[in-house]
Design brief:
Layout lengths: L15 H4 L2 H9 L9 E2 L7 H4 L11 E6 L7 E4 L5 E4 L2 E5 L5 H12 L8 E7 L3 E7 L5 E5 L5 H7 L12 E5 L8 E5 L1 H4 L16 E4 L1
Parallel strand pairs: 1-10, 7-11
Antiparallel strand pairs: 2-3, 2-6, 4-5, 7-8, 9-10, 9-11
Length: 216
């Protein structure tokens, strides 16, 4: 079956794709992304334990939350985080939500409800997450910043970027990701063949806000 993306060949870091986007190219170079030989294959990549769990997702403005107060239906609600990063519920006004994990927000709300409800038990679930914001650079036809649905992978990012140029290498697709405790981004390597097969971890890899996709 013919690939949905244009054929790929040798890389050229001085291609027109990068020249059209000097600001993004500068961002790439300043973050020390291109360090020859320094990368980890996606099958060997392990996220920090705290980032693997959905409960450590940081709530953002515009997210839709389900807040359930046990045995208190009148207080429970499905609500969107406002532009000021706060939510309001019956009995609780202007609770800071953005920047907190669902678990941390639940504990904070329990503290606020203690004087109003006997032994409050609160759960917070993110029903609708905001789109993720990434950048796609290098040998793609439409490089730049992209917004993707939460849970999107590399194929969606490459499609949004218009596919590969004639200079792209099918074995040199990278995701640059900053992680706590590391001075430079972690450089995770993929091949196009692995992305299109149901093998390994490449097809199930999920992008996050702040990731930079680079095609060499």
């Amino acid at each position: 079956m013919k690939s949905p993306l244009p054929a790929m060949s040798r890389t050229s870091l001085r291609s027109p794709a990068l020249r059209r986007w000097p600001l993004l190219a500068s961002l790439l170079l300043l973050s020390a992304c291109y360090q020859p030989g320094r990368f980890v294959w996606v099958d060997d990549y392990r996220e920090p334990q705290q980032q693997q769990q959905d409960e450590n997702y940081l709530i953002r403005k515009g997210d839709v939350l389900t807040v359930n107060v046990w045995n208190q239906r009148d207080i429970s609600a499905r609500i969107r985080v406002r532009d000021d990063g706060r939510i309001s519920l019956p009995l609780l006004n202007d609770v800071d939500a953005a920047g907190q994990t669902p678990a941390a927000l639940a504990r904070a709300m329990e503290q606020k409800l203690k004087d109003l409800v006997a032994n409050p038990v609160v759960t917070v679930i993110v029903d609708e997450a905001q789109p993720i914001k990434i950048a796609v650079l290098g040998e793609v036809r439409n490089p730049g910043k992209k917004m993707l649905e939460s849970g999107s992978g590399l194929l969606q990012a490459l499609s949004e970027a218009g596919g590969f140029t004639d200079y792209a290498r099918e074995d040199a697709v990278y995701v640059l990701r900053r992680e706590p405790g590391y001075p430079a981004p972690v450089r995770i390597r993929f091949t196009y063949a692995a992305l299109t097969r149901s093998e390994g971890t490449a097809p199930t890899f999920r992008l996050k806000t702040g990731d930079v996709v680079v095609v060499e």
